[in-house]
């Protein structure tokens, strides 16, 4: 079974530039998550999708971050304009939707962003 | 809101020694608890999870964890560590409201001395 795919693995940009990350979840997984992991910290949820609808985006900095999941499959996370503090690893995860929410999250390898 | 505390930022143990990584959580209802491991440059891999039932859960790679409701803890243990266990370990609590999402602790970095 193929895992969660993410690209690019690494990206270096200058502040105020834009960047986009792509995620393809495990086939059949209805729920997709984007987490931000700053060096030395645990992952923090940015946005959660259920199929192509947003379940939770309360911690997404909406003035600069946007995400979409067209057709309920793959997803794109965009940052525009980037700030120095956006330097982090962006992790995508997916899970089956189970009533009661007990599905396991499967993570991709992440996209490491460096903002100079 | 739920939260997870991992008191130890960095732990060093000798190969073959026993290991215990601490995790405390704050959550109003019965928690769903997880331990994930992250090797350098890799994503997170699930080691084990607790949903209900037996409070001692077994995971992959010889790890186990014990849920103690009275102490709000979910400590990870391994009787004898291997050099390949060097990694970052994250404890997480699952919030179950409609669809699951995880709240992670800050992580514990494990170093193994030969």
Number of strands of chain A: 11
Given as residue ranges, the uncertain stretches of chain A (5+ residues, pLDDT < 50) are none
Give the CA-CA distance, first to last residue of chain A: 37 Å
Mean pLDDT over the residues of chain A = 92
In a few lines, what is going on in this structure?
With 116 residues, chain A is mainly β. Chain A has no helices and eleven strands.
Fill in the keyword field for this structure:
heterodimer, A: 116 residues, mainly beta, seven-stranded mixed sheet, four-stranded antiparallel sheet, 0% helix, B: 114 residues, six-stranded mixed sheet, 12 strands, 57% strand
Description:
Chain A has strands at 5-7, 10-13, 19-24, 31-37, 44-50, 53-56, 65-68, 75-79, 88-95, 106-107, 111-115. With 116 residues, chain A is an all-beta fold. In chain A, strands 2, 4, 5, 6, 9, 10 and 11 form a seven-stranded mixed β-sheet that branches. In chain A, a hairpin with a 6-residue loop joins β7 (65-68) and β8. The relative contact order of chain A is 0.33. Chain B is mainly β. Chain B has strands at 3-5, 10-14, 19-21, 24-26, 32-38, 44-50, 56-58, 64-68, 73-78, 87-97, 99-104, 108-113. The interface between A and B is medium-sized, with 29 and 28 residues.
